[in-house]
Amino acid sequence: MVAVAEATAATPRAPRLGPHATAWILGSLGALLALAAWTLLSQWLATGGGVINRLPPPAKVARELVQYAAGDLGRDLAFSLRVFVIGWLVGAASATVCGLLLGRVAWAGRIFLPIVEAIRPVSSIAWVPLSVVWFGFGLTSKIFLVALAVFLVVIVYAVDGSRRIPADLARTATMLGMNGWQRFRSLILPGTLTEVLIGSRVALMAGWGTVIVAELVAADSGLGAHLIAVQQSYDVPDVMATMACFGVAGLLMNALFSALERRLVPWRHDSGDVAQ
Amino acid sequence: MIGFVRNRVLLPVVGVLTVLAVWEATVVFYRLPPIVLPSPWAVAATLADLVGTYAFWRDVAVSLYEFVAGYAIGVVLGVAVGLLIGEWRVFRLTVTPVVESLRFIVPFAWIPLTILWFGTSFTGKIVLVAYAVFFVMVVSTARAIAHVEPTLTRVGTMLGMGPWQLALRVHLRAAAPTLASAARAAAAIGWIAVVAAEYIGASAGLGLMITNAATSLATPVVIAGMIVIGLIGAGVSALIGWLARRQLVDR
Amino acid sequence: MSAGDLVLDRVFHHYFSAGRRVDVLNDVSFRVGAGSVACVVGPSGCGKSTLLGLAAGLLRPAGGSLTWDDAAVRMGPNQHLGMAFQQPGLFPWMTVRQNVAIGLSTRGRSRRDARAIADEFLDTVGLSEFKDAYPSHLSGGMAQRVGIARALALKPRLLLLDEPFAAVDAFTRLKLQQEFKSLLRLNRPTVVFVTHDVPEAIALGDVIVVMTQRPATVQRIIPVAREDRDRASPAYGRKLAETLECLGVKSENEES
Fold first, then answer.
1. A206-242: pLDDT as tens digits
2. In this structure, which of B161, B243, C213, C245 has its CB flanked by the most CB atoms within 10 Å?
3. Crossing angle of the two packed helices B206-215 and B54-87, in degrees rounded to 10
4. Nearest CB to C9; choose among A2, A5, A13
5. Of B90, B102, B226, the CB nearest to A126
6. Residue percentage of chain A with pLDDT more than 90
7. Which residue has the higher pLDDT, B9 or B170?
8. Are A187 and A258 in contact (CB under 8 A)?
9. How far is A256 from chain B (nearest CA, A)?
10. Contact criterion met (CB below 8 Å) for B116 and A234
């Protein structure tokens, strides 16, 4: 009841456009469409229709961006980055220390972790007014807020990392007769730092976002301050240009950090996060 | 049972009491003025006072209204567009670069622009929250749809479902648990976006309330406000989690 | 008379992975007569699942043709078809009964009919006490049986099964094979059954289609007669040896 046909070669269909080419073409198309829609919208709104007035066309924003880049961008960016980096380091470092404490010392963990869990969801943003009361509008205040934001994210990773010692490594350490300090240095600390690294990348956007809010409120220096200044002078193109700078900075930092993470911790892949 | 009581009830209570004790002790020991750190009692008393005022409840209502409206819009649009991205390859490839570029402009960065466009009205904050929530939901939905077990799709096709049926009856349902978590995360972000927006430009709301208090160094009010903000945030998150669990039943 | 026959004629298939073309099927041809069971065996990853996907209209062949009932196999949902996959693929948000019934209602039955038929088939596979359970509460083997019940409940004329008993322990597998044979007697669909278990192929198949490694082609088609199924008979041994040899497994006394 079964027959086998003669074996003759048949030509399979020729492949369609490769997958990468399609992605590029469609992606560029999408970007162009978005820009076109933006330009049209700004034209339409300029003639007085619609809720939003003052939508500058992309060309204008681009010009403004170039102007800003040639001008004060460097200075403002430097200020913001300074706040960010210091706050981030402080936050990560304190999270590491606290994470180790809370993770390894049983009673400390049992008592204080629930508190940390309770405070975590209350974003550092809620602390802004208190920070203003305590530290005023200056650098300290902003660093405190960024450090807090980073701390709240990284602490979970640090606690996790401090506890996560593969059982077989622990047994090996015992067999080798390592004492407490040696175990700490060779097992616990590297594990914790690995997790802290990963958590720090996740905390990146939380921290950078906090920088901008802190600067919007304090409004003395940095990208956020510039943003508020141009908003108050009703300079919409400049506002949008500054927003773009902020986004690009965040993107670059994220890319940089992801690359670093891939280099240092290649065996752990934390795929892109959704929300902070 | 004992373990449960110990871990979920007893220890957190001990923790809270410890914090309160440390707080009180710090205030007393360092003789901190109320402007710097009021004692827990002062904050409690302030909170009790606030709850009795009309202005406080008005501020709570305003913030909640802005949040809920923006959240609803953001979730619906976000899931809808996310579904489209997940289901329709051409759409996904076209839209992704735009979405990815906007992703890095944190919602907070939009605050000044929304003020320019909408002033200090509710609309501006609603738009902001909707934007923030939309982004979280779009990315999560698209990702969740992409990760639906392929066998389920094949089963659906074999059983006779067309692409729309597959998308709505199979993919969306399969992605539902992930979407529920994303909805909670989105709520947290949306709520904080409202508060942040109210710091910068608002006529009413909790953010404005604590900013004003900060300016006049009324620290007990600031802390009381922070507690309220935190509680509402936690409450909203828990509510959404509860709703999600009810819908999804036991799996 | 080729109604109910599944015919593969010089089927080629490939896909693209990381920019390179991977050839999966290379000139595959065979016919499965109406009401008969063809067991497809071959090395892992040789494309047996792809074959089923093509026969089900889930994939479009890169070359060649597949024919059912003298007409080309259509892409997309096919009413004549029932299929059970390697993973049970039960919808986790539906109960066992709902899972079996859903196919019936998407194919046009009323809800009430669908439920009744679902109950009937769950009884037949011995899972009626789990009617209201959710898939996460079932063991792998039980979930697979539900998947098969779901395919059978559709009363398909063409039944495709992808290693349905692979995830199950050896004893349960033997029991399931027995159950399966009696279920087939109800409707006598045309069956293509992919398996890596040669004794299973002999037990269930009227014909064994032996595939080569990827890119796979048909190496040999081995008919199975009634006597061959008796495990105590020499005929069984010979059939087993023949099939294994085809797959490249030498018999014991050839080892030196």
1. 899 999 999 998 878 889 999 999 888 888 888 999 9
2. B161
3. 130
4. A5
5. B226
6. 25
7. B170
8. no
9. 14
10. yes
Q: How many CB atoms lie within 10 A of CB C71?
A: 7
Q: Is residue C51 part of a domain?
A: yes
CA distance B209 to B6: 38
Half-sphere exposure of A154 (CA within 13 A, CB side): 34
B170 and C CB contact within 8 Å: yes
Structural domain includes residue C100:
no
Q: Which residues of A touch B101 (CB under 8 A)?
A: 247, 251
**Do C30 and A2 lie within an 8 Å CB cutoff?**
yes
Q: Which CATH number goes with the domain that contains C245?
A: 3.40.50.300
Residues B104 and A212: their CA atoms lie apart, in Å, by: 13
Q: Give C-chain residues touching B149 at CB under 8 angstroms.
A: 87, 89
pLDDT, one tens digit per residue, over A50-65 is 556 678 888 888 998 9
The ipTM, to two decimals, is 0.85
Kindly report the CATH class assigned to A61-264: mainly alpha
Instruction: Evaluate whether residue C224 is within a structural domain.
Output: yes
Chains touching B (at least 3 CB pairs under 8 A) are A, C
pLDDT: which is higher, B127 or A193: B127
Query: Cα A226–A231–A232 angle (5° rounding)?
Result: 100
Cis peptide before C215 (omega within 30 of 0): yes
- At position C187, the amino acid (one-letter code) is N
Taking an 8 Å cut-off on Cβ atoms, the answer to whether B12 and A118 are in contact is yes
Q: Band of the pLDDT at B24, cuts 50, 70, 90? A: confident
Position C141 in a domain: no
Q: What is the pLDDT of chain A when averaged over all its residues? A: 81
Compute the mean pLDDT over every residue in chain B, rounded to the nearest whole number: 89
Residue B248 token pair:
């999804």
Q: Is residue C41 within 8 Å of residue C93, measured between CB atoms?
A: no
- Spatial neighbors of A127 by CB under 8 A, at least 6 apart, are A144, A145, A148, B226
How far apart are the CA of C236 and the nearest CA of chain B, in angstroms?
35
Number of domains within chain C: 1
pLDDT for residue C251 is more than 70: no
Which residue has 């506002």 as its token pair?
A239
| Contact predicate C243/C253, CB 8 Å | no
pTM: 0.83
Distance between CA atoms of residues A109 and B13, nearest Å: 14
